[in-house]
Design a protein that fits this description.
The chain is an alpha+beta fold. The protein has a domain at 7-77 and 86-128: Aminopeptidase. The chain contains five helices and seven strands; from the N terminus they run E-H-H-E-E-H-E-H-E-H-E-E. It has helices at residues 18-30, 41-50, 79-85, 108-122, 138-146; strands at residues 7-11, 53-59, 62-71, 92-99, 127-134, 150-156, 161-166. Strands 1-2-3-4-5-7-6 form a seven-stranded mixed sheet, with helices on both faces. Strand 6 (150-156) and strand 7 form a beta hairpin.
Amino acid sequence: MNLSKEFEIVHFNESLSSKTLKDLYSLNQDNTPEVGSVRSVESFASLLVKSSVNLLIEHKKQPIGFIICFRESSEYESLNYKYFDQKKEKFLYIDRVVIKSHYRRMGLGTRVYNYLDELAAKELLPICCEVNSIPLNQISLNFHAKNGFREVGERDFKDHSVKYLIK
């Protein structure tokens, strides 16, 4: 999908170059607690192997963001993922969305979500995710509401809380 001459969204899998994999892992770690921390590059690579849909956001062929999604019945141990897996027969779960800070507020997130909408619509899949409510991620809650998501549950963990959302 071409966003402009400079921005592009491409599907990717676990067979990334070592450098790109490390870059994406670093991007993930730079964006905690908004997205969950991952122990190591190897653990991040394992996450990609288990996932179903991965999109890379590039600016002038350089990775500036990504989205990792799972389908139902995946071998993913996340309690947030399991919330939806226990309630929905079919779905697309957005596990993490990361965009480098100086590329935010440019409409890239909306464009990526529109692309996911098109993918999910082909199989009539609801799109599910969670957003931190403690620590509060109001920007993400607002973004998801603007993009048609509604709250369907919440959960308190030892060190944070989340709201479960669906579209």
